[in-house]
Amino acid sequence: MNVFEEFRDLSGLEQLRALIKSGRRPPIGDTLGFALVEIDAGRAVFAGTPGPNAYNPLGSIHGGYAATLLDSACGCAVHSKLDASQAYTTLELKIAYHKAMTDRTGEVRATGTVLSFGRRVAFAEAKLTDAAGKLYASATSTLLVFDRA
């Protein structure tokens, strides 16, 4: 069963709060070892610790790890603004990589915020930082908001 099926009749913010409270996470979080740790209206925070399983051939964490956390943070920031009849999908994600990560980086947090939320389109941004506040990557995202079938 989809992790959100039992929360289907809740608003986006209520869904995400229920997910955190349940201690579960979507399967991608299990695969890459990250989770939604904070949620408020228009703001989402994901935390994860990159490990050797995410290395690229150059010996650093693959950029896809940062991209996934940033996309999740932008998406869930928008998700938190949805009513129970709405859904969303990412139309565009632009990422800037500021510093390479390794398995010694430690926990990183992707904090996403909604910049604007319209009837059909939302815009969000996110930053990926370590415990000391060092910036590793940032992103902007355009998301399509639509009625759920």
Describe the structure.
The protein is an alpha+beta fold and 149 residues long. It has a single domain, classed as Roll (Thiol Ester Dehydrase, Chain A). The chain has helices at 12-22, 27-32, 63-79; strands spanning 34-40, 43-48, 86-97, 108-117, 121-130, 135-147. It has a six-stranded antiparallel sheet with strand order 1-2-4-5-6-3. The longest helix has 17 residues, at 63-79. It starts with 11 loop residues before the first helix and ends with a strand.
What is the secondary structure topology, with strand pairs?
Blueprint: H1 12-22, H2 27-32, E1 34-40, E2 43-48, H3 63-79, E3 86-97, E4 108-117, E5 121-130, E6 135-147
Antiparallel strand pairs: 1-2, 2-4, 3-6, 4-5, 5-6
